[in-house]
Each structure stands twice: as structure tokens, then as C-alpha cells.
Amino acid sequence: MKKSGYRTIFHIYLIFFLSLLGAIIAAIGLFYLLVTVQTPSGTTIRSDWPKSFTEDFRSQIIFIDDKAQVKQTGIELLQENDVGLQILDHSGYEIFSYQKPERADDTYSNTELLYIYQTGQLKDSESTSFIGTVTNNGNDYAYILHFPMKISKVTMYLNADRFTGGKTIAILIVGMLFMIVLILGIIYGVWTTRIMSHLTASIREIATRSYLPVQSHGAFRNIYDSLNTLDTEIKASDRLREQTEKMRKEWIANITHDLKTPLSPIKGYAEMLQEHGTKTKEQCERYARIMLRNVAYMETLIDDLKLTYQLENGIIPLERQTQNFIRFIKELIIDILNNPEYERRTIHFEATEETVLISFDQTLLTRVFQNLITNAFVHGDENTEITLQISVFDTILQIVVSDNGKGMTAEETGLLFQRYYRGTNTEHKLEGTGLGLAITKSIVELHGGTISVSSIPGIGTAFQIQFPIN
User: Fold this and answer.
1) Residues 343-370: what's their mean pLDDT?
2) Taking the complete model, does pTM exceed 0.90, yes or no?
3) Domain 221-312, CATH
4) To 5 degrees, how large is the angle CA 465–CA 246–CA 262?
5) For residue 12, what are the CA distances in angstroms to 18, 191, 257?
């Protein structure tokens, strides 16, 4: 066993020893409280003091002309301890009293005296009473001392043959209990140390990704369940990181290729313009248009990278203006359909309200809805139609952009808003930066909204966006 194992056992030992010591101290304290009482003067005495006081008080009773009297020292003892006294003749009649309680009777039957002797209590009294006897000229007299405290008399019947060595037996029992606790502490310490060693090894295996889930049903079940959950989450995170890293590398390769692609015609046509020889005006204009188109494509790529960086670091300026959102969407749809590339496409528009005033950045939200609409056209076929529905629910503005395109699998929709991801369900070349929908999601969240996607392969895709109206 390693040194840490011994240290663990020592700590468990220490806990058990301190627990046992605390139990012993508590038992001693409880025993002390049980076998001690306080006198009216505040002095703490043993609880059997009234009995011994009663037996010793016999010497304070004297008889003068066969009349019971109490010595002056006895009176002082009664006064000092606030004890009441009754002296009874052989018939139970009171023949002398001093400071007796109000509830004390003047005469007692044998049954009542026996009850007082056995219980030490007068009926309905808060005091404790002890009975003693004294003899004068062959006549027996009883006396009752009433103490201003409550003491319970407990009678135990034990085996006389075995209880002659009661003190030895008590010490033996305490010793056996101590040894049992000590042995159980050792067993528990070894068992706990093994469990802790296994837990330590499990944590080390999780760190090295070699952990195997454990099904435990013991006291440490919750810990093992937590370790199993932690291992599952770490492995899922590892897979996500590997997937993201793979997409990042593919994105770098693609973006490098996409940046080089427009550079080739720009460089080629620039060299053609540089060559000697006469170029017609039409040729120059055609070369210039091609070069400008490729430059614009490069600018789009660079703008996407810049916007992604700004959104990621929260440094993009948000220029909000309160305006009619319905009118904004209508104008945006008209602008898209006026584009020669989409002029033969169909966009259906539905709205429950004519006017919905909210505060938003028009430039950024234009980017959002252009991304969603043009993506549906690019990844669909020529018969793909888009439906844009706007509804208001209390303080929520909901926009649903749906299409009847090819749809996507659950795996594809799970990756859709991740950076560097490019759709795969298309017959066209995968152009673009792979940042469009990630940018869309960031812009929506920047406006305090949410965006989600649902898709069924062969049926179509629907994006749901919600903004708080206030």
C-alpha cells in the first residue's frame, strides 16, 4: 500500500477515535447529570445525598419525656437545606413536624408509607420524600424528610452471583466495545482506502481517455455515476473538438482555394492588358468586368472573416433604429427578386400584422434574411419556393423562413450553425466561406433573439427566428 493509503487509514482511525472519545465524554456528562442534583443554595451534590442525609438524621432526633424533639443542630440542618420533617408514631399519626410541605398529610396509612418508601414521592408534590425509623424505649417511630428537589428512585434486579464483580464486568464491557470499534475502524479504513484508490485511478483514466464506465451499487454509487457522466461528456467534447478542428482545416483549405480562384483570372487578364498589342475597347471592358467580379468575390470573403471576428469579440457597432419590420422584409424580398439571378424564383409572404415596430440594425438583419433566402435557392433546385411567415405572440415577433427544397438530415442540422461548416446536400459547387449561418445566428442573438432549424429530407427546411418586441 502506498504512503497515501496509510495516511488515509490514519485519518479514518483518528475520526473513529475522536468519535469514540466524544461518545465517552457525552456518556460521562449524561451520567454526571443523572447522578447529581442541585440544592436550593446552588451547590451540586450526588443524587443519593437525600438518602444518606435521611439515615444520618436519625441521630438528630431525641425524646424527652417520651416526646419527640429535634436537636438544635438538626434544626439548623433542616433550615440550611430547606428540608421538611414529620415524625410519626407507630399508628402513623404526626407527633412532630418542622417545615413540612403544604401537601403533606397529618396521618399516613401503612399503604401510603409504603408508596412513599418505594417512589419517594408525595401525591401531587414537587418534592422528594425519604423515610427513616428511630426507636425509643422499645417503641418504633417513623420520620419523613421532604427534600425540595425531584429525584427518581430506580430499582434494578441483577444476578447476584455475577454482579459481585460488577465493576470488573463494566470495565471489560467498555474494553470490548473499544476493541470492536477499533477493529471496525481498521476494516472500514482499509475498505475506504481501496475505494479511494480506485476512484483516483478512475480519474487518472478519465484524464488519459482510457476510462471504462463502472456500474456501482454501493455507498459510492453517486460518485461513480458522476464519473461516468463526466467521462461521457469529455469524450463527446473531444469528438466535437476533433470535428471542429477537421472542419477548420477543411475551411482553411477551402478559403485558400477560394481566395486563389479569383486571383487567377485577375492575374491572367492583368497580364493580357499588360501585353503589347492593340486591345479593343470591348475587350478591355470585358476584362475589367471579370476582374471586378472576382475582386467583389474576394471582398465578400474578407468581409465575412472580419464580421465573424467582430461578432465573436463583441466589438461590432450596433446601429439600432425603430422602424416597421413588415415593411423592411417586404422591401428586402423585392430587392432579392429584382436580382437577375433570382427574378424567376418564387417567395410567398404572409403576415398577421401590417405594422410591427421594433428596434434593429437594418444592415445586419438584411444580412441575416439574405443568407437564409439565398441559401435556400442555392441549395435547392429551380422549382424551390420560399415561404416567409411573420406572426406576433404577445411580446414575441416570430419569423419562419421555410422552403420545399431537398431538406437535411438531423446530423446536418446539428452542424448548420457551426463555423466553417458548408452544406453537403447540393449538386452545386460548395462556394462561400462556411460562415454565413454562424454569422446569422450571432446577429440574431446580438438583437436578443433566437434562431432554430428543423428539416426533413425530401420535404424541406424551416428556420424559426424570434425577437422580443420590446
Assistant:
1) 92
2) no
3) 1.10.287.130
4) 80
5) 10, 11, 65
